[in-house]
Amino acid sequence: MGTIEKLFESWRKHFENGGRFERWYPFFESIESVFFAPARVTENAPNVRDHLDVKRFMMLVIVALLPHYAFGVYNVGHLAHLASGLSTDFGAVVFTGLKTVVPLVVVTYMVGFFWETLFAVVRKHEISEGLFVSCALFPLTLPPTIPLWQAALGISFGIVIGKEIFGGTGRNFLNPALTGRAFLYFAYPAQLSGDAVWTQLLAGRNAPVDAFTSATPLAIAAVTDRLGDAQSALADSGYSITTLLVGTYPGSIGGTSTLLCIVGAVFLIILGIANYRIVVGCVAGLLATGFFLNLVAPEGSLPYLAVNPIYHLLMGGAMFGFAYMATDPVSAAHMPVSKWVFGFLIGALTVLIRVFNPAYPEGVGLAILFMNLFAPLLDHIEIKIRLKKRVPNV
Questions:
Q1: Separation between Cα atoms, residue 202 and residue 7, nearest integer Å
Q2: Which of 22, 101, 149, 389 has its CA 20 to 30 A from that of 68?
């Protein structure tokens, strides 16, 4: 690391005040801080000594997402080979998955860094560390068949409209990655919905082979007719509890494995990065709403009303949203009680959107964005209640 440190030290003078590339100091600083702690420190007491600065705080979220990327590469390649009737040899599957996932990640980071650098240079501040997490989350929410230009457009919308126009990281009230994902869904629904988008077909194939079922679990549950049984329909399609828990089925690149999401949530909670109140509240709201719908569902109604709430937790990206997006420290609620309410309502809305809005079978993304809008109000209400409980000064 000594050689790299000397390299940055030799370049620093060109980017600091008076240097030839003074305007581009934010870009230089963002690259340097990946390798080393910030060079600038407080000169006078009091000094807080901690090895964990904000960028490393954010990097731990990316560490938690790495297993999702590894699983996503395998799952995308495996499903592509199954659908195309090709060998599912591990090496070939991983190679196919890498060809799909890596370009999406590269395009997302290139475009995201372009916008972040542009705004940092114009505003003369450092590049926000939140960009790393937003660009890591965004590709994991996408289907593997999405065109690269749409991925670039989506992250542009998420960074610029979802964050920068409000002042950048710390001032945005919506999750940038989800904002970009929602924009793509409503702007280009054909590329973000339906059964065909979730499985990458290889060259020479224009339809899945007969032995492969490409419909997602959420789609199957949503279209089960009134005389059917959603859980039986899922089982008949090969979606057992184990399959749903592990996530080896068509879906977004990184959001199908509930098991990995639980492990990631526990990892972030133990490190103090994610708040357990929000995660537990989300799960509680989803299960409670699911059980309530089971109780009130009239006989002969839509089978989706009577589906076991555990299936809601296991299907799709519910747990992915709860673990990584609902816990966004900027756009989530901040007061202790409001965090519980914020999480509970996200879980409840996820089920309600899924059951009563078949056009949007996932639900969790819209639920989080909707509650992002109300997070400040929830905090305000709790603060007002706490102030009323204070003993007046005499």
A1: 44
A2: 149
